[in-house]
């Protein structure tokens, strides 16, 4: 794999995209979620989630970079990851609060809560200088959520699960190619994300 392709995959499947991607899969899947909620509510949920799990964390990280607290948005060291992950956890929990107020389905609520717990684990891991792969954590969580969605709704989502397993493999290789992580950090990220979603969803 070339460096250019590795960079492209890392950006395309950035962990900040995973919550919105997961919610889009839930709403777009051939399950009752596709028909239960009106289009406007779907837009509101996706928009609020995009703000809380992508825009606001990105702005916070840019502010930290401007103040010199982090060198780059890649956050290559554990020290640089602490406050961005803590802030992102708060934003995820804000989304959970909104979904409770909107009386959203438990699968959606627990998916978001599981994502918040996953990010908090990244935050805690940074204190022991263990740089868990956020990319693989996000993809592992996505696969775990889709698997539970398939089992609970009795809808075959094997093709989607298989596609993301393949994507996870390529992204894992890309992160290793870029020397962003050690193999143990890749495997740990995937397993933590996957198992947390199995537990919460």
Structure description:
This protein is mainly α and 201 residues long. 77% of the residues lie in helices and 0% in strands. It contains nine helices and no strands. It has helices at residues 3-12, 18-28, 33-36, 39-66, 78-101, 106-125, 134-153, 158-177, 183-200. The model has no long low-confidence stretch (mean pLDDT 88).
Quick recap:
This protein has helices at 3-12, 18-28, 33-36, 39-66, 78-101, 106-125, 134-153, 158-177, 183-200. With 201 residues, it is an all-alpha fold.
What are the salient characteristics of this protein?
0% strand, mainly alpha, 9 helices, single chain, 201 residues
Distance between the termini: 35 Å
In which range does the helix fraction lie?
A: over 70%
Strand content: under 5%
Question: Low-confidence stretches at least 5 residues in length (pLDDT < 50)?
Answer: none
Rounded to the nearest angstrom, the radius of gyration is 16 Å
Q: What form results from the Cα inertia axes?
A: globular
**What composes the largest sheet?**
none
């Amino acid at each position: 794999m070339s460096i250019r392709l590795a960079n492209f995959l890392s950006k395309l499947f950035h962990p900040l995209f995973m919550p919105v991607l997961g919610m889009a899969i839930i709403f777009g899947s051939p399950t009752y979620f596709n028909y239960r909620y009106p289009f406007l509510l779907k837009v509101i949920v996706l928009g609020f989630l995009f703000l809380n799990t992508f825009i606001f964390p990105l702005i916070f990280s840019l502010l930290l970079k401007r103040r010199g607290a982090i060198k780059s948005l890649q956050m290559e060291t554990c020290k640089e990851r602490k406050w961005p992950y803590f802030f992102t956890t708060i934003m995820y929990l804000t989304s959970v609060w909104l979904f409770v107020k909107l009386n959203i389905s438990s699968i959606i609520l627990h998916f978001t809560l599981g994502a918040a717990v996953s990010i908090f684990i990244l935050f805690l891991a940074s204190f022991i200088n263990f740089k868990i792969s956020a990319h693989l954590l996000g993809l592992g969580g996505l696969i775990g959520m889709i698997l539970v969605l398939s089992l609970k709704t009795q809808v075959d989502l094997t093709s989607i699960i298989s596609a993301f397993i393949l994507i996870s493999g390529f992204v894992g290789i890309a992160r290793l190619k870029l020397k962003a992580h050690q193999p143990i950090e890749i495997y740990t990220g995937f397993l933590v994300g996957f198992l947390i979603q199995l537990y919460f969803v």
